[in-house]
Amino acid sequence: MQNYDLKDMIYEGKAKKIFKSQNSDEVEIYYKDDATAFNNLKKSSLKNKGEINATITACIYKYLEKNGINTHFIKVLEPRLHLCKKVKIIPLEVIVRNIIAGSFAKRLNIKEGTKPKNVIFEICYKNDELGDPLINDSHALALGLATKEDLTQIYSMASKINNLLKEFFLKCDIDLIDFKLEFGKDKDSNLILADEISPDSCRLWDKETHKKLDKDRFREDLGGVVKAYEEVLLRIRKAGLLCL
Fold first, then answer.
1. 3-state DSSP: the chain helix, strand, coil percent, rounded to 5?
2. Which of 63, 73, 91, 184 lies at a CB distance of 3.0 to 4.6 Å from 87, suitable for a disulfide?
3. Tens digits of pLDDT across the chain (244 residues)
4. 15, 17, 21, 49: which is closest to 30 by C-alpha?
5. Contact between residue 158 and residue 94 where contact means Cβ atoms under 8 Å apart
6. DSSP labels for 131-183?
């Protein structure tokens, strides 16, 4: 990674650092090796995690762009450094659930692995101090987090992304259980996909064995976190989907 002054850093999150770029409409996003869970209560550092997630995200974003999804991704600068469009993030986390797992299973006392009758869409208020609480559309409108038009477009894009990603991962013999998305607006107020899509932000299970290949290995102390992430990347390569 090239050297940066602290003044060049715009923001540091749990898994990434965002730096100014030469173009004021662009930013450089660095993927860290830090691992966190339970609203930052559990922390660790996992060697090479950032580079793996950066590679997977770049591949997926190129795949989504090719299939009509506008994203903030521009190109890879270094193995764990991306050049991206600068966006104003909408403070909502959009969760798409194909299979019941995680907090949803615990919250409603439903057996993990249960397939719902429909795809489930949830939104959370992106606010660390409040623990990213689950909210509904009316809350989002009342708090001024998004407009009706924003929400309509977000759900439409999330649905299309879900269909594309399910197809993508099935080619790798992986089931896409659920995943988190974030959106932002570029300089022209276009709504675009931002943040990352990786084993940090998705639940990914082996199609046959249901082995977990995602961040739940860290959350649940299952071990082999980086090895599982490497396996996801290897399967993407073997499926001929690594378009870098």
1. 30, 30, 40
2. 184
3. 556 565 589 999 999 999 999 999 999 999 999 999 887 778 899 999 999 999 999 999 999 999 999 999 999 999 999 999 999 999 999 999 999 999 999 999 999 999 999 999 999 999 989 999 999 999 999 999 999 999 999 999 999 999 999 999 999 999 999 999 999 999 999 999 999 999 999 999 999 999 999 999 999 999 999 999 999 999 999 999 877 6
4. 17
5. yes
6. T--EE-HHHHHHTTS--HHHHHHHHHHHHHHHHHHHHHHHTTTEEEEEEEEEE
- What pTM value is reported for the model? 0.95
CA distances (Å), 53 to each of 76, 152, 155, 226, 229, in order?
12, 29, 25, 10, 8
